[in-house]
Amino acid sequence: MALVLATTTPGEAELFASLQGEGASLGRPSVFVRLSRCNLACRWCDTAYTWRFSGDNRPHRDDIAFERTANQITADEGDIATRILAFGVPRLVVTGGEPLLQAPALARMIAAVRAGNEAMHIEIETNGSVAPTPALDALIDQYNVSPKLAHSGNPADLALIPERLAAWAADPRAYFKFVIATPDDLTQVRELVATYGIVPERLFVMPEGTDSATLRERSRWLAQAAIDAGWRVTDRLHIHLYGDTRGT
Description:
Structural class: alpha/beta
Low-confidence stretches: none
Mean pLDDT: 97
Shape: globular
Subunit structure: Homodimer.
Strand order of the largest sheet: 3-4-6-7-8-9-10-11
Largest sheet: 8 strands, mixed
CATH architecture: Alpha-Beta Barrel
Number of domains: 1
CATH class: Alpha Beta
Radius of gyration: 17 Å
Domain Radical SAM core: 25-244
Number of strands: 11
Binding site for S-adenosyl-L-methionine: 44-46, 97, 146-148
EC number: 4.3.99.3
Binding site for substrate: 19-21, 34, 95
Helix content: 25-40%
Order of helices and strands: EEEEHEHEHEHEHHEHEHEH
Number of helices: 9
CATH topology: TIM Barrel
């Protein structure tokens, strides 16, 4: 049994300890495991090496195609669980790509982590378009749900699935994180909040950007918009600390 992971360098799985850089757990020491493959294709995706392999012509602002063999690795679920536990960090964040595409294998890996540390807090980062399997769902403490708005370039019928958004909005473990590039994006967030009854306490808006200057500039006007709407703002701490790099 195996998981398909992204890599930091060819042959080395992207598995590392750092601080959670975004959302409700911002600043908390965490172990990260980044899975490969995604069902969506955001124009501004900062982890395009998890899905935009040679031959994939879905649009991306950098227009770079990555070689699959150098950027993707298959690893045994038990081995990955052992490596996670070896960090001795009390929080696991599973990111991607879209982790829920590998729900059965992921559930087995997380069950092995739980067997080694029952108190491990486990988060999954998801684009919100894929449902977790019951076996996986029973193991998760927190979902960081980032539905993709129109400016991502994804068709709404793929990215914004009504039954999934309604389910996430009703799940107290789910925190929404909307990526914002321009003030116009806030209109769509307001529409989604009204349609699905998303609770402001579980809603974050986050500036899109992969450098500190862009994040700070967008945060200036985003902060006032969040105050007016009663939403929460999240930064991208890892960008300020380490830049736009893998394994951070």
